[in-house]
Each structure stands twice: as C-alpha cells, then as structure tokens.
Amino acid sequence: MKKLILLLPALLLFIPQALSAQDPTGSPPQPSERHEFVISNFKTESGVILPQARVVYGTYGHLNASKDNVVLLPSHYLADFHGYEWLSGPGHALDTSKLYLVATELFGNGHSSSPSNTPEPFHGPRFPVMTIRDNVEAVHRLLTEELKITHVRAIIGFSMGAQQAFQWAVSYPDFADRVVATCGTAKTYPHGFVRLEGQIAALTADAAFKDGDYTAPPTKGIEAFAVVWTGWLFSQEWWRRELWREAEKPGTTFEQVLHNFRTNFIPGADANDLILQMRTWEKHDVGATPGFGGDVEKALRSIKVPLLYMPGETDLYFPVGDARYEAAFIPQVSLVPIPSLWGHTAGAGGSPADEKFLNEKIGQFLSAGK
Cα(130)–Cα(356) distance, rounded to whole angstroms? Predict the structure, then answer.
C-alpha cells in the first residue's frame, strides 16, 4: 500500500515513482537543485499585497550561454518541483543533457508562500486566495528578473500545471515556442467547481477546523476530504478491475486500500493549504484575463503557438468533453486524448503505459518544433 500512497503528493503526487514506471535506461532520476525567489510587496489579483511572496523552484540540467534551451514545468495540486521526473532525464521526452528545466511550485503548496508558512496578518485562513494568473505573474518575474530568461522552448503542465500552461499562452502569447497541457483545462467549469466545493465541505465540517484557526490538525476533516478526493481520482473501471493491485503486495484487500487513502492521502498536508489551492483551482478562467471580458472562447482563439492538448479519456476532474469543447477554438491545437483507465493520474504517467504514451507524444511534438 505504501507504493500507491506515495503517488499522491506528486499526482497528486508522483505516480510513476509509486508504480515503478521505470526509466527505460535504468538510470536514477536526474539531479536537481532547489531555489527560492522572493518578491517584495507582491500585489495579488484580489488587491491584497503580500510583503514577501516566495516561489520555490527546482532546476535540472544547465542553462546554455544563449539561454534558449529552457522548458518551464509549473506544478500541480500540492506537488513539489519533482513532479515531472516521469518526463525528464535519459530515455524521456526532456533530455536534461541538452535542456534546462525550471520546475516551479504553486502558491499554497506548503513550500512557496502558503497559509501554513506566512506570518500574520496573512497566516492560515487570512492568506489571500491566489489565482492561476497570480502564479503565472510571479513565475514570469522569476524567469525574467532572476534568471534573465525572456523566452522558453516549451511550457508543459499537468492538471493545475496545465491550467498555468493555458494562462501563459493567453497572458504571454510569445513567451514559449510550444505549449503542452495534460489533464487540465483553460477554465474550471461548474461541474468541477461543485466537486471542489464538496471536498472543501468535507474538510471544514470537522469541528476541529475552527474556521481555519485550528491548534491541531483537523484529522477527521482531512480524512473525509481524502475519501471524497479518492472517489474522483481514478476511473470507475479502474476500481472495478482492481488496477490498484498492480502497485500492491499480493493479498492486499480493497478495505486496506481505502483505509490508506483515507488516513495517508497527502502525508503532513496542512488543511488551509489544501483549501487555498482548491480555491485557486476554482477561480481559474483564461477568459477573465484582462482584455477578454470573461470570454473564454475569445481567449482561446488568441493563443498563437502550437498547443498539444492531452486530456485523459477517463479523467473525472477534467472531462474529455471539456477539452474537445476548448480545442475547437485554439488555432494550432493537436488534441490527443490519453487512452487510459487511470483517470486523472494518466496525465502524469499514472501507469507505465501512460508514461510511455506521454513521453512519445510530447517528444514528437517538441521535436516537430525544431
């Protein structure tokens, strides 16, 4: 069970690690370096000014002299910068002997500025709701001010990382040569909003939550949240076929699987951080970008660069139908659904077959742009 649980903070957490979707070369993950970028007096889209906004990021490979070998990898829900190692290194789409990868962490993940690590007056429930555009703006400053990078070869994102990839394509249409979005849409539609509200309601129903000013973790609420989240994470057929057995020791029961999802879903996660990133998810809408008047279709039509759009065929978070709707408005789109029973997790290489499919398709797409 530990293997399956390990996937969640990197899927959530990092499914290929959990399932041993191994590097075909047998090589270990590529070395990475952790960094922090601090922005003073960062004005959020809501108008709140954070005295210090911290963006944690990791880098892989080496920046060349002309600074034209950069790929940006924005993180997904509560993940850290290691969340794209299924796509990078020897035998994968992103060759770190040639490319310089910058993997950024979302506000609210517990490392970058978050409810849990920001002092008063913005600690806990008083931390401002951040938008995807807030995250994109902060990372744009990181790239241009700290790293002196003004253009990247590609922006590749999974889930909330895909939300950021779409926002980059709209807010900074000339910044990247190509964009890849896996299992994530350009807007959170009402069905997704309702799902997220259900998860927030499950978490906050715990009396120990105390409107976010808890003195001890609201464990029952986090466990309720975890069960609701788990119900959406994989496809119905994944559960019927008991595909979780592929990651488990012989003899593991369904009851043990469910118990471990309930009690060890995202080890050590802070409740306010969990909620903050769900609020960020809810508010995502490229149509709300200044200049588009709330029109998501107009915003999608403005995307200038080739975009590889890879929804999961069984993703319950971002249904393939929403992707087909959006793709109709993107001028240079390649819509390539992921044929997988692994639900939302397919977009992060949920199974060995998913990892292989993604690396092949993304590698081909990036090579076509050379």
Answer: 34
